C-alpha cells in the first residue's frame, strides 16, 4: 500500500486536476480511503505488538487503546461529524488546496506534507477513518479477552446478508434518531451491530459513499425490507 501511495502522488503531480470537483473528490474520498486503511493496519500491528498473553492484562491494554482513539474522534468532532454525514457545503474549504491559512484542526498535519499534495484535512480524515475502524477492532478484542464472562451465553447469531445491507440499516437507524434520542454516533451503532451479529463491517463510511453513488435505488435493502414487510402483512390479513 505504501508503494501505491507513492504511485498515487506521482500521478497527481503529473496529471493536474481538470476542475475543482475532481480535486475535492480526490482529497475527500480517494486519498483518505487509501491512507486510512494503511494507518489502520499499522496501528493494529502496534497494538498487538505490545499486548500481553494474559487475558486480563490484554483487556486493559485494549480498553486503554479504545479510550485513546475515542478521544481522537472527540477532539475533532465537528470535522468528523461533517465528514461522516456526507455533507458537501464546506468541501471547498476542507478539500481544496487554494486556501492560504491553516486552521487549528489541520495545521499540525500540514507540517507533515507539502501543500501541493495536501489540503491538511485530507491528512486528518484518514486518521479519523483509522480511529473509527480501530474502535470496532478493539471492541471485538475486549470481548474476546473477557472470555465470554459478560457475553451472551445463548446461541450466537450471525449477519448473513450483504455488509452493504447492514450499513443501510445502521445509517437508517441513525438518520431516524431511534437510539438514545439520536445522540448515538455511527461508530457506536456499528460497534453494537458488529458485536451482536459477529461481523466485521470494515470501512462503513466508504460503503455509505458507494450507496450514495448507486445508479438505481440508494436504499435497495430498506426498499426490499419495506416491500417484504407489507407483503407479510397482506398475507396475515388474508
Automatic annotation (TrEMBL):
It comes from the Bacteria. This is RteC protein. It comes from Bacteroides xylanisolvens.
Amino acid at each position: 500500500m505504501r508503494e501505491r501511495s507513492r504511485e498515487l502522488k506521482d500521478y497527481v503531480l503529473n496529471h493536474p486536476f481538470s476542475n475543482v470537483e475532481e480535486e475535492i473528490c480526490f482529497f475527500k474520498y480517494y486519498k483518505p480511503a487509501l491512507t486510512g486503511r494503511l494507518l489502520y493496519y499499522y496501528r493494529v500491528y502496534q497494538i498487538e505488538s505490545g499486548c500481553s498473553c494474559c487475558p486480563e492484562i490484554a483487556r486493559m491494554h485494549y480498553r486503554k487503546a479504545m479510550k485513546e482513539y475515542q478521544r481522537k474522534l472527540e477532539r475533532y468532532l465537528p470535522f468528523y461529524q461533517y465528514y461522516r454525514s456526507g455533507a458537501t457545503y464546506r468541501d471547498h474549504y476542507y478539500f481544496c488546496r487554494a486556501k492560504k491559512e491553516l486552521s487549528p484542526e489541520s495545521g499540525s498535519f500540514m507540517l507533515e506534507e507539502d501543500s501541493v499534495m495536501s489540503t491538511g484535512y485530507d491528512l486528518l480524515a484518514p486518521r479519523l477513518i483509522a480511529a473509527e475502524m480501530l474502535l470496532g477492532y478493539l471492541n471485538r478484542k475486549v470481548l474476546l479477552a473477557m472470555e465470554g464472562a459478560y457475553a451472551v451465553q445463548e446461541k450466537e447469531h450471525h449477519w448473513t446478508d450483504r455488509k452493504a445491507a447492514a450499513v443501510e440499516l445502521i445509517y437508517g437507524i441513525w438518520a431516524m434518531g431511534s437510539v438514545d434520542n439520536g445522540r448515538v454516533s455511527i461508530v457506536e451503532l456499528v460497534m453494537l451491530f458488529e458485536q451482536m451479529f459477529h461481523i466485521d463491517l470494515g470501512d462503513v463510511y466508504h460503503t455509505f459513499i458507494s450507496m450514495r453513488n448507486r445508479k438505481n435505488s440508494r436504499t435497495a435493502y430498506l426498499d426490499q425490507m419495506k416491500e417484504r414487510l407489507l407483503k407479510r402483512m397482506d398475507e396475515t390479513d388474508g
